[in-house]
Amino acid sequence: MSISLKMQPAVPPMTWEDFCKTSPSYSIALDGYVNDGPKKDLKAPRVNFDHHHNVSRFETRATCAQVLMAVRTGLFDLFKDKKGPHAIVFANDCDQDVCTAWTVLKHNYLARNTMNPILNRLVDIEEKLDATGGAYPYPASLPVLEQLAWVYEPYTQFRLSGGLDKRSGEAFTSIVSDVEGRILKHITGNGSSIPLDTRYKVIENHKGWSVVDEIGAQARTGMISDGIKAYLSVAKLPDKRWKYVIGRISEFIPFPISEILKDLVSAEGNTPDNWGGANTIIGSPRISGSKLSPDEVIKIIKGHVPN
Prior knowledge:
Blueprint: E1 2-7, H1 16-22, E2 27-30, E3 39-41, E4 46-49, H2 63-72, H3 75-78, E5 80-81, E6 84-91, H4 96-106, H5 108-111, H6 117-131, H7 143-151, H8 153-160, H9 169-187, E7 200-206, E8 209-214, H10 219-225, E9 230-237, E10 241-248, H11 257-268, E11 276-277, E12 281-283, H12 294-304
Parallel strand pairs: 1-6, 2-4, 2-6, 8-9
Antiparallel strand pairs: 3-4, 5-6, 7-8, 9-10, 10-12, 11-12
Helix pairs in contact: 2-4, 2-6, 4-9, 8-9, 11-12
């Protein structure tokens, strides 16, 4: 078996066509590495597992759930060589979805059995949280959420400490490895749990949405518990840049993400590293952050969601 991870956090998301031109056969792209929805080239073979771009996020499985389904329905009947399963996995992020997808791919022998209730539960909860940008209405008191908080703690602490912004491939790979180890402990009954940190600060309230500063790792669980169903999350980066997440828990919330996204892309400028996402959650440029100030982003949102 030969399954390797190529972590490239400084590489902007690329088109599917460019991925096919630049990657070798048996390549798998995860969760935003390719700026497109799920794609397959069965002759090469190559595959893109994604639920951010050109998809309806509400109906599209999270990346880890796509991967689990693929593993259980024959992915490694195609992605294999004489020694067994063979894949080169490309990623430019180390979030919960990437870590879970990678663990399922690397340890596919543990995932192939559909009767694996702890793994099934882990992927199911992570998928719902990821599809809603962490704002699925689970009660904060749910014990399994404390277990998952422990599983993904290396990533959440890395994110809160600003580690994501340095775009170090070595550091990103280390986080994936640490979370992988915790997932294996969790699904074999040897994991732990930690209390949720749902702290956040409301910066501004508007009609139907709020501007927030996320303080705790599970801030969005707190936000949805308090009735916030659409939001702009703001964080300051070095060099007068900003990191934003704009989200709503579903398409049923009247907050036109797709229209807002078009205006933000235009305001940011024509660059490969730009705003992106799906119809329920979008984010500022992944590599460089945004040059737009909070006032500029709020003004664009207000153009679509007047008070």
